[in-house]
Amino acid sequence: MAKILIVEDERDLRELIVLELEEVGHTTFEAENGQQGLEILTHQSPDLILSDITMPVMNGYQFYRSVKEEYPEHSHTPFILLTALSDRQDELKGLRLGVDDYLTKPIDFELLTIRVEASLRRAVVRPDQIAPATPPLDSNPDTTNEGKAARVNEMIALNDGRLLTGKFETISLDAIRDRVGDRWSAMSQRILTSAEAVVTSHLGPKDVYHITAKQDFIVCFADISDDEINARVSHIRDAVWDKLFDETDNEELAQVDAHAHTLSLEIDDSEDQDDRFHGIDQLIEQQKTVSQQTSQRKLHQVYHYENLFAVTLMNASGSPSKIKMLTFEQKFADLTRDLLRGGRWPNAFLLDLQKILFQRLLENRTLQEAFSHAAMLLPINFTMSKGEEARKGLTTLCHDLENNMDTDLLIDIVDTPDRIKTQKKSLMALPVGRKVQSLELRRTAQIDGLELGELRQLGVALISMRYDDVINHDELSLRHLIKMLEQAGTKFLIKEIPEGKLYEAQIRKAHLYAMRT
Predict the structure, then answer these.
(1) Does one domain contain both 119 and 173?
(2) 428 versus 297: which is more confidently predicted?
């Protein structure tokens, strides 16, 4: 495994990072500031450097420059910056300097290990490290279609006929024309250029990308595992979205759809390689169509026929609160979440699911009575908050439900993006802004960069996380988040707690707990 230098002035956090990385097999070296880090480099040669920014004696920016200027042997050593700074400009400053990645506190240790492994894989291989029996792909690859196709053939050969791919789709030309009129050509080129710059900046030296006739991006990943492909594609998608949103300041023009695929292919040595990527694109679309059709049937079945339950939220003392949550039986709640997260669903389809759910509520007298004296925490997929048309349909449904049921709706936004701050406009335009709202997290890092005061501005009174995500999360970071939320007047909810696991949830010291009794 790798040797990693950790430069962090907070001793407790540094020790947690050391413990996490050593548990997965890495060797670590520790320093309290950049100056100590430089001293370690005089007698150690780490494979990766992880450094805080705000430190005494020598901060992270100064340390990074000193490493690159004074230690040429580390010119290609991956460098990850770590900081609690919330201003996105600090992140951009680090990335402009040339650092490989950027993580913010409180640390999501699962994300940390993924980023470390990804940075190590992308590191440039020195000639003396290359094993003669397995030579790497050309370090100066042919960028013609024929050259790219040849490199794809090498990937297929090295992976027994398998190819890990990601497809990134930006807004269509017709949609751009509808939105900006005569400026559509210039805007299209601007979007394409910006997206290409981001995609290429996130690729390893052996990865291959291709732009289709529809201006979509197909990426073939050379050094990545099946378990990492989804996270890698999601990370690139979010980076593209951020870039497009920053440049256009328009959430509709910044549309990015992305999906990961594992394809089974044979090596194609034919003379005409121009159709190679067209064939890959067709396989991706076929796989996506079949997968979405199967998932669509399963989702319709669950929303139409599976039992719905009203679950009372308990406060820290164990007494019931005035909020109840609408949910399916546990196994079906897990299934719907996985299916919805696994596909990029059209808003029309998501709206159709909500219509089914709302109609069942209006037809179920038992559920109506259960919510008659309690506020209803209602799950809504984040995608439905994006775009005026999507919000319009959701607004109509919510008002119809309010008019036909004696209850307050608390919109619980689920499947929230990794970068919530950049999507504030979507959240602020939600249809029930005068009501209490809730955001569901998978990782605490999702609200990094979002000033806590902005939570109240958005109308967020609850931050929720599923029990399964909570127990897989670093306990110290989670408690730190809960304490910060408390100071901002926002409560933390642990939901979908399995039977008999209430105590394990309560030791995290959340404010509310949801467990079916």
Answers:
(1) no
(2) 297
